Every structure is written in C-alpha cells, then in structure tokens.
Amino acid sequence: MEKSIKKHDLKKLHAGILDVLSDGIYVTDAKGKTLAVNRTYEQLTGLKREEIMGKLVTDLRNQGNFDVVLNPEIVSSGQKKSLVQVTKEGRRVILNGCPVFDEAGKVALVVTFVRDITLLSQLQDQISNQQEVIDKYREVQKRDKLKQQNGPVVFESQEIVQLMNVLDKVAKTDATVLMLGETGVGKDVFSRLLHQRSLRQDEPFFKVDCSAIPESLIESELFGYESGAFSGANAKGKPGLFEMADKGTLFLDEIGELPLLMQSKLLRALQDQELIRVGSTKVRKFDVRFIAATNKNLEEEVKNGRFRSDLFYRLKVAVLQIPPLRERQGDILPLASFFFEKYNIKYRKEVNFTKKFCDALQNYKWPGNVREMDNFIQSLIVTRDKEILDVSDLPHYMLRDAIDMDRSSLSDANKSLDELMRDYEKNLLKNALEINGSVAKVAKLFKVDRTTIFRKAKKYSLL
C-alpha cells in the first residue's frame, strides 16, 4: 500500500493545483488572513506571495496595495459578491468572491477568482470599434439605396452608349479605373454604376473627396490611426477608408488635388494593398478596387511637377473619358425629363414645360454639365408656382445661348453685305421674340432701348 502523502507535500500539491488554473486565486480565512494565492494572481496584480501571505486583506488595503476588499462582506452575509479592484500599480481586475462553509454552516474560507478587466476592456473597445465601422458601412449602403431609388442612369446619346459598353467590360475586372471629365459630368454616378456591375457589388462602396479633406488629415482619413497617434485623436484609434472599404470599392474623387507626399503613399498602397496606420508599425493587408477621378489634365500636371508620373501610369489602366453635356445633345431632354419627374415627386408638384422651353434647354451649352441641370431644375420647381414653364421662366444667360443664330444665309454668295446683315438681324430678332415673348425682354437681353427693338421689328414685319 502506498504511503500516505506527507503534510508538506500536500501543501505543495495544493499550490501546484492552484498554479495551473487560468484565473487568479486568492484564499483567505474568515478573519481575512491571506492563506494562498496562485501564480496567475501574481501576474495579474503585480503582488507577490511573499508580500501578502499571512496578512489581513484589510491591512493590505490600508497599506495601499489595492483599493477595496470583498472578504468582510462575504463573511458577514454568506453570499457571493463581485466588484472591480484597482491595485497599487493601477491594474484593474474583477473579483468574484465565493464563501466556503464549515460543518456548522459558518463561513470558514473565502475563495476569490480574479480576472483581468483590462483584457475585457480591450475586447469591448475592439467590439465598439468594429461596430463603428459597421454603422458607417450601413449608412453608406443606406445612402446608396436611396440614390438607386431615384432612378437609373439616364442616357440616350451614342457617346454614353459607347462609354457604357466599355464600363461594362471594365466592371467585370479588378482593374484600377481612371475617370476623366469636367466638373459635374457625373463621374460619381458612373463610379457607383461600375461598382454595382462588378463582382464586388455586395461589398461596401466608399467615396472620398480628396479636395475636401485638409492636408493634415488626409493620411489619417485614408490609412487610419492608432490610439494616441496625435493630439485630439480618438482614444480608441480609428480605421481608415482603405480598411473600411476592404473587399469593396474606394472612389478617390478629385485625385489631382492630393499633395505629392500623399501621392507617394497612395502609390505604395495601390501596388501592395498594404497600409500602416498613423502611429503604428503594424502592416495591415486590405483588398480594395480603386476608382480615381479628376477634372484636371493629369498629363499636364505630371509635366508641371504637380502629379507623380509613376502614380499617373499606375492609375492609367482603364481610362473612361466622360464627355461634357454639350457634346451629348441626345441626353439633354431625357435628363431634363428625369429631373422634372424626380423633383415633382419630391415636392409634390406637377410642373411641366413647353416645346420652346425644351428647345432653349437643348441649345444651352450647360457649362456646369449634369450637376448644373439638376440644381437648375430643382430651383425652378421650388420657386415657380406655374404648372407649365415657358422660355419666359428661363434666365437671360440661358436665352443668349439658346437663340438660334441661323448662319445659313451667310454662305449665300449672291447676296451683298447689306443683304446678309439684314437677313442675319431679322432672323436674330425673330428667334429672340419667339423665345422671350415680348419686346421689353428682348431689349433687356440685347441691352438696348425698347424703341430700338420695336422699330427694327416693325421694319422686318415681325410685329
């Protein structure tokens, strides 16, 4: 028969059992005398066995080793209790104290399980951080759905039909796309359309306007930052747009406005699909499809040293040139009809327009492109009480472009200069009167007296 385990060996065995437990263990008797602690407790609190063994927990508290104790209340109540304790080194731990009763039903021991609340706080911060990303993603998706509800991309011109054919081919790849075009042509709309027709359509789409972010914040917005990276930073740190758009698409609008230093960092991110947050040394991988857009001539910017040539050629993989509205006449009236319907629904109106009104829109040059038309038609519907709009509701600067200056007569070699000038003036006045509807408005348009317009109109039998 094996010899019984000696008393001192049994104490070692008990200590060994305590040391294999993952929680910190602190054992006291009913008076609060420290009987045992394990290795995990030492690691969690920074307090050593030899410093606390045999001492009362209340004395240890009074000496500043920790701020609160459980034992007295558990002994008096006979109930379990939990609280948060802070050690002298500033470590925060959560205590779960349990009473152990003797044969008489009195509390003989108190066993306290100690867990690191710092780890729990870190996990909570990570969950909070991820929730912030999820909330932002949901907000972006919500905005996208609202935009999609406004209607599809409206076009009938051959120029946009050809552009869409190329866009569909490019969308099925992961190639970087560079969209070129004047301000207001719809680069934002076409970039979203490209994302919706890509294999990443169910993943996030983020847009960043490079011209709208202060230079000092661009890096942290794109790459993110760690806790304490700079004054005023979020205490939890923050993921950048590269991370938030992971698996999806990131649209870099007005990329020609990026400072040269950021162009260099962007180039590395594009090539390696890796980033380092501001204030960190950890490399993070991401998977993003990039679409860049600008209204600048990047080749000229490269020649003038304002844009990196290596970044330009890295972006110039699939180039989509979006023509201005004045070069796609077939889209003007479909777009106008679309915006009228959109804002009639939004403002609960039923505003329509005449053929002459349409002709004036068709002949206007639209220097602000689609964005100008969108804002202009919204303004008309908001500010006019009429159910049918005519050319008289258009501003003079639009009518100046809208007047059809018929130059066909100028090519007639059988007419003298006086005859050509007379025909030109007659046609000009005729079209102006038809569009404006009154002598007074035509006089204001051409900056002359009403009597001058009246006299010339009588001369040409226009009145």
UniProtKB/TrEMBL annotation:
<dbReference type="Pfam" id="PF00989">
    <property type="entry name" value="PAS"/>
</dbReference>
<keyword id="KW-0547">Nucleotide-binding</keyword>
<dbReference type="Pfam" id="PF25601">
    <property type="entry name" value="AAA_lid_14"/>
</dbReference>
<keyword id="KW-0058">Aromatic hydrocarbons catabolism</keyword>
<dbReference type="InterPro" id="IPR058031">
    <property type="entry name" value="AAA_lid_NorR"/>
</dbReference>
<dbReference type="GO" id="GO:0006355">
    <property type="term" value="P:regulation of DNA-templated transcription"/>
</dbReference>
<feature type="domain" description="PAC">
    <location>
        <begin position="77"/>
        <end position="129"/>
    </location>
</feature>
<protein>
    <recommendedName>
        <fullName>HTH-type transcriptional regulatory protein TyrR</fullName>
    </recommendedName>
</protein>
<dbReference type="InterPro" id="IPR000014">
    <property type="entry name" value="PAS"/>
</dbReference>
<feature type="domain" description="PAS">
    <location>
        <begin position="17"/>
        <end position="55"/>
    </location>
</feature>
<keyword id="KW-0067">ATP-binding</keyword>
<dbReference type="Pfam" id="PF18024">
    <property type="entry name" value="HTH_50"/>
</dbReference>
<dbReference type="InterPro" id="IPR025943">
    <property type="entry name" value="Sigma_54_int_dom_ATP-bd_2"/>
</dbReference>
<dbReference type="InterPro" id="IPR025662">
    <property type="entry name" value="Sigma_54_int_dom_ATP-bd_1"/>
</dbReference>
<dbReference type="InterPro" id="IPR030828">
    <property type="entry name" value="HTH_TyrR"/>
</dbReference>
<dbReference type="Pfam" id="PF00158">
    <property type="entry name" value="Sigma54_activat"/>
</dbReference>
<dbReference type="InterPro" id="IPR009057">
    <property type="entry name" value="Homeodomain-like_sf"/>
</dbReference>
<dbReference type="GO" id="GO:0003677">
    <property type="term" value="F:DNA binding"/>
</dbReference>
<dbReference type="InterPro" id="IPR000700">
    <property type="entry name" value="PAS-assoc_C"/>
</dbReference>
<feature type="domain" description="Sigma-54 factor interaction">
    <location>
        <begin position="153"/>
        <end position="382"/>
    </location>
</feature>
<dbReference type="InterPro" id="IPR013767">
    <property type="entry name" value="PAS_fold"/>
</dbReference>
<dbReference type="InterPro" id="IPR002078">
    <property type="entry name" value="Sigma_54_int"/>
</dbReference>
<dbReference type="InterPro" id="IPR027417">
    <property type="entry name" value="P-loop_NTPase"/>
</dbReference>
<dbReference type="InterPro" id="IPR003593">
    <property type="entry name" value="AAA+_ATPase"/>
</dbReference>
<dbReference type="GO" id="GO:0005524">
    <property type="term" value="F:ATP binding"/>
</dbReference>
<dbReference type="InterPro" id="IPR035965">
    <property type="entry name" value="PAS-like_dom_sf"/>
</dbReference>
